[in-house]
Amino acid sequence: MDDPAFETPSLDLNTQTILLHASNHDLEALKPLLRIPGNASVQDPETGMTPLHAAISACGPAAGTAGSLGEGEEGEGGEEVDIEKAKEVVKELFLAGAIWNDLDAEGETPGCVAWRLGRKELYELVVEAGVRAEMLLGLMGGYEALESGEEDEGMDIEEEEEGEEGDGVIVVRKGEGESNANADITTGEKPQEAKNEEPPKKDVNSEDYLKSALKFEDDKLLDEDANGVMMAWETDIMRRSVDLLLPDLKPGARILNIGFGMGIIDRMFRATSPLSHHIIEAHPAVLSKIKEEGSDFGAAWEASAPEGGKYVVHSGRWQEIVPKLLEAGEVFDAIYFDTFGEDYTQLKLFFSEYVVGLLSPEGRFGFFNGLGADRRVCYDVYCKVVELDLCDAGMDVEFTDVPVDLEGMGLGKDGEGEWKGVRRRYFAVDLYRLPICTFMG
Ligand SMILES: C[S@@+](CC[C@H](N)C(=O)[O-])C[C@H]1O[C@@H](n2cnc3c(N)ncnc32)[C@H](O)[C@@H]1O
């Protein structure tokens, strides 16, 4: 059939039929259609709705849900919906290749919809599928797509299998936009993205970042594209991290911190009177700030190390400095890792290859856990992914939930409150899962 006038309606009919069966939770009608490759992830061209969105949103809000799976708001299942049937449909869709993180026109993934409606069981199914997909992508080298640009966002798994750059990038901290949610799989554009009038996205990568000019403000450090490198609202997270990395804040510890930023965590480490305190920092502007007169980490600090210890700022990328520390036989009781402009491959490389040689047997390792934190479902998926990868590297991780009062702290909306002047809200979930890692016993 060459005439597009004939093709378009039949394509639409296919999509609409699938979406209808999905929203009716009609598994029998859906199953034969799902045998055809691609059908599990069709998208309505107007609404961006996929069969997963349809199956989940048709459930409506769970009883007693005020809009999300907040505390005490267990999705109990509305009387009118047979949630078991919905679960079967969602499971079948995943078996048939449905994509867990496609965005609809409202910018929601199926998991976002389940969360908003308080449908906990469906939400968990999406998270499980997300973890499976991301682990698979990692195995296939999907995370290697370091320099993914906007055009990459729409790639589907098949394209990635062919070795092209794709959506396998996990946002660790700031910078990249919603790289952890899929755009439209055919065009690479987010459906109706213009609706939200977002600033055009510019990819952040380590090389460009380390060359960029920085803006130091009292409460934030920005790169030249106004991406938030570090912000003062994270002070409580840094405080809790130090408290958990150094139980009882015992003096005399050997500490390694990677990424100085605003020096928030280093000031806290410094206050514990460590035996050794090594800082690795790569950005020339941050390094100049550290060397400025009156800095807390200048020559006077370096000279103040107790006997047998060492206080030092290493200038350079951790990728170059860390092998030298290993060679020198340095060992640490607490290691913290918090860089900017790097993706998950680098964090994973650090804990898989280097922590084993740098951390004392009873030592503790932590990192800024911003993995996918611009979206709740992605955050939950990537917390599990990192847990599995840490396990693979021989480490146990314990997450401590730190509430983040988004509204109270002025973090609720893009471009407002704390985010004023910051290009993108990189943290949009109301709890921070603080990881403390130790060697498996
Ligand atoms: C988010 S800030 C760290 C904030 C810090 N935790 C604090 O409490 O202020 C990230 C820092 O890592 C630095 N950085 C980025 N890539 C790096 C690399 N490869 N090696 C060392 N430092 C790096 C950045 O220049 C920046 O100063």
List the main descriptive attributes of the protein structure presented here.
seven-stranded mixed β-sheet, alpha/beta, three-stranded antiparallel β-sheet, elongated, Rossmann fold, 441 residues, single chain, binds S-adenosylmethionine
Itemize the secondary structure elements and their pairings:
Layout: H1 4-23, H2 27-34, H3 51-57, H4 83-95, H5 110-117, H6 120-139, H7 157-161, H8 206-211, E1 215-216, E2 220-222, E3 228-231, H9 235-245, E4 254-258, H10 264-270, E5 276-281, H11 284-291, H12 299-303, E6 310-315, H13 318-327, E7 332-337, H14 344-358, E8 359-367, H15 376-392, E9 395-403, E10 431-439
Parallel strand pairs: 4-5, 4-7, 5-6, 7-8
Antiparallel strand pairs: 1-2, 2-3, 8-10, 9-10
Bound molecules: S-adenosylmethionine.
Structural account:
The protein has 441 residues and is α/β, with parallel strands linked by helices. It folds into 2 domains: 4-136, Ankyrin repeat-containing domain (Serine Threonine Protein Phosphatase 5, Tetratricopeptide repeat, Alpha Horseshoe); 207-439, Vaccinia Virus protein VP39 (Rossmann fold). It has helices at residues 4-23, 27-34, 51-57, 83-95, 110-117, 120-139, 157-161, 206-211, 235-245, 264-270, 284-291, 299-303, 318-327, 344-358, 376-392; strands at 215-216, 220-222, 228-231, 254-258, 276-281, 310-315, 332-337, 359-367, 395-403, 431-439. β4 (254-258), α10 (264-270) and β5 (276-281) form a beta-alpha-beta unit. It is elongated. It binds S-adenosylmethionine (SAM). The site of S-adenosylmethionine (SAM) has 26 residues, from β3, α10, β5 and α13. Monomer.
